Amino acid sequence: MAQIEDRRLTAKQVKALCADAALLLGAARALIDEHAHALGAVRRALADVRADLSRAELAAIPVSRIKDVTGGRLRIGTLERSGYATVLQVLDATPYRLQLLPGIGAQTAGQVHAAARQIATAVEQAVGVRLDIERQDPHSGELVIALHKLVNVGPELPRALETARTLGTRLDLLLREAKPARSRLRMLFAGSERRGRAHTALASLAELLADARETRLLLAQTTADLLRPTVSAFEAWSDFEHRSAEYYSLLAEVAGEPVAADQGILPDDLLAKVNAQELDDTHRRVSLRGYQSFGARFALAQRRVILGDEMGLGKSVEAIAVLAHLRARGATHFLVVCPTSVLVNWVREIESRSTLAVHPLHGAGRDAARQEWERRGGVAVATLDSLHRLPVTEVGLLVVDEAHYVKNPRTKRATTVAEWCRRTERVLFLTGTPMENRVEEFRTLISYLRPDLAAELRGSDVVAGAQVFRKAVSPVYLRRNQQDVLRELPGRVDVEEWVEFSGADLAAYRQAVAEGNFMAMRRAAYARPDTSAKLKRLLELVDDARANDLKVIVFSYFRDVLGVVGAALDGRVHGPISGSLTAARRQEEVDAFSRTQGHAVLLSQIQAGGVGLNLQAASVVIMCEPQVKPSMEAQAVARAHRMGQVRTVQVHRLLSVDAVDQRLLDILGAKAELFDAYARRSDLAESTADAIDISEHALARQIVEEEQRRLAP
């Protein structure tokens, strides 16, 4: 600690020092007070919204439930005969009004009303809050306005609050300790111990104030942001539409979230270990949802894991939280490996959600970026296909995004990732689809992280039942599904749009079948655009979306099908996003689509746009044809139906009657069941691990042969 010769300071100088400290203390307290005021407004508005939602639920609960609550002790026949049909009606009546009913005395009326209040309390605690942009009632508007004030303070708010609280406690103590030094006479009559504490306090104050310039700016700017005038409901709802994830993150902090779903399926001892894990947010610039915090702490506690959260839950944010924690604890170099299509998105996410330096090892500047990373540290972002050119070096954390891309151990990218995993202490795999065709793929991913655990899974654990399997994989695998942790997520409506071939469509299809051309069979419905039944229905869906001012994304496996759609829409589309576009160009197309006011259409090849890009601006998804891999379609839909979506998502699948589409759906259904059994819930079916294994080549051959037999003259 720097020393200060406060005995040489005049009383005036000491007072000036204390006055300066008092000003800083006042700034800290002002920030805390303004934040408390803003938070109070959110809580009051939230209480009103909860009350509205609770009343709606209570209006649907029959009055007979009062009898259940009291164990059958209260007879409610008189209530029902008197027209009381719901718990809400009982709750709205006073005990006095109830006792006026024939056969109900004062005591019974009080008990009935108390039972109704008990049900109301339980409903209010359990009700989930979802802000519906399509139903902007007054109380929801007040809540969005209150949240807007805190959301727009920015990512520095948590750090500013922590600084204010720490500073407030320390300054308050130091000023009390330094109080005798403000008067020579008071110091004269103070004991030696008290004078010594005063001298030490003055020295600490001087040191603290000397380094307080940045702190003053942080407190002043944050307080000014909190004091900004309240915006209108229109402005708040407009901001919510574009940044709903931030609003819901804040709302989750205020309202609290259920714990069980956040924590996946883990045994008690592992839960205790994860919950005891600290999470340092010094280098993080984003608030975490409860389940995201748990996921980050799981990765830290277990060191080498697969985070298999369903798409749209923010796995990248959880990874960034882990990176930020490790940086705060002294690690300097990190590596993120991902498909080329999402490299730009990773760079953006790290830059906006942390203070970590990020270095994209891609494109013309990759060599310079690598040298800068090696010299300064930070997060290097490399593609899966270029990783083999990067020598294995020591990193604090290796993150592998879309880790299912390395499920085949015989590929070059997989062997490279495996080598990095062997040489790296902490590894985090991110994938919403750890298995696509066989449970063996799931084992392969685990083998990169925990070879011992993978070996055990080859034995009886794999077929011994759900509980045994969950226990076996819990040290390395954590998965949460949208329906469990995102109660605010809007609904999803899936519609199968069956159409019959036109004469020209059918002729093209028959020719493709005769030639044994599986890919031509899949896109035969668009071979004659002028008469295409699928294209006609697609244009009708786009017209409906335009009438309702909704954004649309059209997915197809085939570039030429997207060309047909684009031409039919007279080129009034964004994209198409395809494998030929660089990652930067794909992101530019998505940004332009998202910025467009009102209706817009984005075309995308499903294998290019279905991974990594955030497309929640779209609320209508059109699939031109079913996909061979169920995970590919699930990923694509999850680009729109994810955290940040504020409208119900419509998913329309264009399907041809009695043709290749129907054959595909039969097999896709079986593959989807396999994923649900082994990976979505970590729960085993009774069949063996390899019960279903249909490769794309085998699938195509099977469908072609079936259709050739069916259409044979």
TrEMBL record:
One Pfam family in the UniProt entry: Helicase_C
Family matches, as InterPro entries: Helicase_ATP-bd, Helicase_C-like, P-loop_NTPase, SNF2-like_sf, SNF2/RAD54-like_C, SNF2_N
Single Gene Ontology MF annotation: helicase activity
Keywords of the record: ATP-binding, Helicase, Hydrolase, Nucleotide-binding
Protein's UniProt name: Superfamily II DNA or RNA helicase
Domain Helicase ATP-binding: 296-452
Gene3D superfamilies assigned to the protein according to its UniProt record, in alphabetical order: P-loop containing nucleotide triphosphate hydrolases, Tandem AAA-ATPase domain
TM regions (residue ranges): none
Native source species: Nonomuraea roseoviolacea subsp. carminata
RNA-binding listed as a keyword: no
PROSITE patterns: HELICASE_ATP_BIND_1, HELICASE_CTER
UniProt domain Helicase C-terminal: residue ranges: 534-692
